[in-house]
Amino acid sequence: EARSFIKNMQHNLGVTTFYVTHDQAEALALADRIAVLKEGEIRQVDNPRNVYEKPADSFVANFIGDPPMNLVDCNVQLENGELKLNLEDQLFTIQEKHNYIKKLLDPDHKYLLGIRPEHLEIKKDGALKGKIYAIETLGSETLVTVSIKNKKIRISISEPYLDYDIGEKITFDFYYDMLRFYDKQTGKLVEGRDNQNQGIS
Description:
Elements: H1 2-13, H2 24-30, E1 34-38, E2 41-46, H3 48-53, H4 58-63, E3 70-79, E4 82-87, E5 90-93, E6 110-115, E7 120-122, E8 128-137, E9 142-148, E10 151-157, E11 169-174, E12 180-183
Antiparallel strand pairs: 1-2, 3-4, 3-6, 4-5, 6-12, 7-11, 8-9, 8-11, 9-10
């Protein structure tokens, strides 16, 4: 109630307001623009949508969002002109319609692949294989934690109940237009393309 009241009051008064909070949900809900700080350093200044969908670095990606963005070590391989990504020893090929990703990545570089839980989908013949580690029913959605090797990946599904069991093997895939890549050494977002709606694989 307090959050709604503050939002409404600020709109009615029409004055510039600085609101300091450690609660990222409050920041997303109240702000027209957000400045994310770490140890006194500004890491990103942008509108809430861009801060959420296109975090400037791996710190912002991990801090903003509940649950936060999945971040997975990613190695790049180029074989016979085909770009392949290696996630936890699982190789998958970037299809022709997603060739813009090739312009982003260097096969001799190490990255973190970032993807929001709601931008993953459990599906037959998905690009990645995993085993269900946990299932959390959260009312209007279900949060599925999948284990691939030693990494846990969260998938948010807009269904209240799912017919899966812990320990069950599944395959899943990405919304490729929502993939984000971060330099493993610097943590900074790798840019160079427009976020065009490429659809799900």
